[in-house]
Design a protein that fits this description.
The protein has 139 residues and is α+β, with helices and mostly antiparallel strands. Helices cover 27% and strands 36% of the residues. The protein contains five helices and five strands. The protein has helices at residues 12-22, 27-30, 32-36, 47-60, 129-132; strands spanning 3-10, 67-76, 84-95, 100-108, 114-124. A five-stranded antiparallel β-sheet has the order 1-3-4-5-2. The radius of gyration is 17 Å and the shape is elongated.
Length: 139
């Protein structure tokens, strides 16, 4: 069975940059004073941020460079209060080299609290020999 895991530390600045890119300035995610008056007491990370972590798993690890995502399903189990150290674990549960389904869990790296559970399904895209020579992003 193919598995991979990575950790990422997420700060309020990361949430601000995500808001800037996405245009989602919901104050629950970006305004400490506003969030202090909610049941969470602190800003929580955008749920859509976790979709980017699923994409990282797919494009960099399982299956990697040739991945073509067909779909992502997310279930938000608990809010991610910032700052957070996240463990992202992916497991290939169906398929193989040409297509498959991967289960992903995003949890707190220290406590194991689950924040997001979900799956993505993938195929592979084709590329030429010239494309293989292009530099890749660091892992």
């Amino acid at each position: 069975m193919t598995e991979h895991e990575f950790t990422v530390d997420v700060t309020a600045e990361d949430a601000r940059r995500f808001a800037e890119l996405s245009g989602d300035w919901n104050p629950l995610h970006t305004d400490s004073a506003y969030a202090a008056n909610t049941s969470y007491r602190r800003p929580i990370l955008h749920g859509a941020f976790s979709a980017g972590l699923f994409s990282r798993m797919a494009g960099m690890h399982i299956p990697g460079r040739d991945c073509l995502l067909h779909g992502i399903k997310l279930k938000f189990v608990a809010p991610m209060v910032l700052p957070a150290s996240l463990r992202v674990r992916g497991t290939l549960v169906r398929g193989g080299d040409a297509q498959g389904v991967v289960e992903v869990v995003i949890s707190d790296a220290a406590t194991g609290t689950r924040y997001v559970e979900g799956t993505y399904d993938f195929g592979l895209h084709r590329h030429s020999e010239a494309a293989q020579a292009l530099p890749q992003a660091p892992q």
